[in-house]
Amino acid sequence: MTARNQPSTSFVAESVRPGAHPPCGCDHDQDALNRRLEAMTERLERTFRRERQFACDASHELCTPLAALRLELEEARLHPDDTDLASLLDRTLSNVGRLQTIVGDLLLLARPDAGTPAEPELMDLAELVRGELSRREDRHEVELRLDPEVMARGVRTQLGRVLGNLLDNAQRYAKSSVRVRVRRRRDIAELTVCDDGEGVARAERDRIFQPFTRLATCRSRSHGGTGLGLAIARDLAEANHGTLRAGPSPTQGACFVLQLPLSPTDPAGASIPIR
To answer: Which SUPFAM superfamilies match (predicted)?
Structure first.
């Protein structure tokens, strides 16, 4: 071995000497990696728990109308002469309709963009509200405060579904009236739907958007609904680059706030095309 090679051999031997600590901080890197793996495992476990709970809740929601349907039909089969056929068919159709609604909501929640592809378009939120209300027959009066030319860009059918779900929720829990407001807030187009019902506790204002949530307050699902409407509404809002949150209402009930990027208009009020 030449003298020229000796320093290199000495360096290698010294660098791997037993008991020596690597100069590269490998122990620290390994600890950090272990922490990241533990955090990832914990997140996965939480996800699996949510998925199992969702499957359990979905099964329960589907089984309830199915059980009622089966009971009605079995009773009619046992006592055909005592069965009011028209009434039986009405109840059967009602349960089938509920099943269709739940299944449709589950599919939409799984894939908010499912169905016929639609291009985002520029729309006036006040016109969106008027159009949605014209198709409804609501129990409580709806008070409107709609600023003109509040323009937002999105898929009309999806934002219409968001508004429809919020109106359904408000009508379900309102005591006497519902308020809808459209306005600008700096560079935000804001649509709010408020009711004068029991409201939502601060600690539950985010949880209420989880599927099949059961609140401890009077806004429980004993009032009807599938328990999926608000979850779908938030997903569709986010799919259109917006946000949806819950807060207190000026009338002591609940208020749901949809915020979307405000699309610009010229001084005359005409919308500026967005490419």
So the answer is: ATPase domain of HSP90 chaperone/DNA topoisomerase II/histidine kinase, Homodimeric domain of signal transducing histidine kinase
